[in-house]
Specification:
By secondary structure, this protein is an alpha+beta fold. The chain has one domain. Helix content is about 20%, strand content about 20%. The chain is built from two helices and four strands; from the N terminus they run ββββαα. Strands 1-2-3-4 form a four-stranded antiparallel sheet, with helices on one face. Strand 2 and strand 3 form a beta hairpin. The longest helix has 10 residues. The structure holds zinc ion. Zinc ion binds next to loops.
């Protein structure tokens, strides 16, 4: 893993042991988890459906697509890695 783990103050309850994980690959994303109050925040990525994508392309005057472009996969599985690491 290329990211870093540390602890910080929870913005919800103030607990100073909130766990954080930050990584810059494949793009900047963060995970925060507070074992005191249960607050959690994660960066997640997803792909739009063809209809959603064409709606966004239409707003930007881009040609509409007949089928979805090739997609590798969801780019981050950090949340799963983070949970499994414990
Ligand atoms: Zn908390």
């Amino acid at each position: 893993m290329s990211g870093t783990s540390s602890t910080d103050n929870c913005p919800n309850c103030g607990y100073d042991g909130m766990e954080t994980y930050k990584d810059y690959k494949p793009y900047d994303h963060h995970i925060f988890f507070c074992a005191n109050c249960g607050w959690e925040a994660v960066t997640e990525d997803r792909y739009l459906s063809l209809e959603e994508l064409n709606n966004e392309r239409a707003k930007r005057n881009l040609p509409l697509l007949k089928e979805l472009p090739t997609r590798k996969a969801i780019l981050t599985s950090t949340q799963i890695e983070f949970k499994n690491k414990k």
